Amino acid sequence: MLFLQLNYLIEIQPIRSTALIFSNGRIVCVGTKSVKDSEIAIGHFVDIISSASSLPIRMRGFKIQNVVSSFAFPGHINLPALYDTMRIAPPTWLAKHISYNPEFFPGMCLRLVDFRTVVLVFTTEKCIITGARTEEEIFIVQNKIYNSILMFCKNQ
């Protein structure tokens, strides 16, 4: 297995993002709020690296690998009841993988059929969607899951 060494870590403030710079020349930008902010931040990072280097540096192969979103439900979620219902009568959008073991992890993990996303649902009203490639995919996934999970909110 090949592990790349993290050579530098740069943070910029206007957009609040961090760049992980690896020995193979790849830059991973984390912490931005949108795709546009990510492109701007990468441009800033390339400028910073260019000014510190005597070699010509340019950006190529920009792509979004992972979009993460979080939102809150209007009340605490009854995860044991949600888990039992999803196992017995899963909705059409749900893949076979559902995991909920509060002794190891406090949230429920749901995988969707048509997407590579993973949804983490917590009793504390919070929900995290990860693994999407676009912001549009996040909105589609949220629309699919919201009403099914809303039925298990305790403080509606």
Number of domains: 2
**Regions with little confidence, pLDDT below 50 for 5+ residues:** none
End-to-end gap:
49 Å
Shape: elongated
What is the H-and-E element order? EEEHEHEEEEH
**CATH class call of the largest domain:** Alpha Beta
Order the strands across the largest sheet as they lie in space. 4-8-7-6-5
Computed over alpha carbons, the radius of gyration is: 19 Å
* SS summary, helix count: 3
Structural class: alpha+beta
> Can you give the mean pLDDT?
85
* Main β-sheet description: 5 strands, antiparallel
Percent of residues in beta strands: 25-35%
Report the strand count: 8
Q: What fold name goes in the CATH topology slot of the largest domain?
A: TATA-Binding Protein
Helix content: 25-40%
Using the 3D structure, state the CATH architecture of the largest domain: 2-Layer Sandwich
Question: What is the CATH superfamily of the largest domain?
Answer: TATA-Binding Protein
Verbal overview:
This protein has 156 residues and is of the alpha+beta class. It folds into 2 domains: 6-52, no CATH class; 67-150, TATA-Binding Protein, CATH 3.30.310.10. It is 28% helix and 31% strand. It contains 3 helices and 8 strands. The chain has helices at residues 35-52, 79-88, 135-150; strands spanning 6-12, 17-22, 27-30, 67-72, 94-100, 107-112, 118-122, 126-132. Strands 4-8-7-6-5 form a 5-stranded antiparallel sheet, with helices on one face. β2 (17-22) and β3 (27-30) form a beta hairpin. The chain is elongated. The protein starts with 5 loop residues before the first strand and ends in a 6-residue tail after the last helix. The model has no long low-confidence stretch (mean pLDDT 85). One of its GO terms (biological process) is DNA-templated transcription initiation. Keywords: DNA-binding, Transcription.
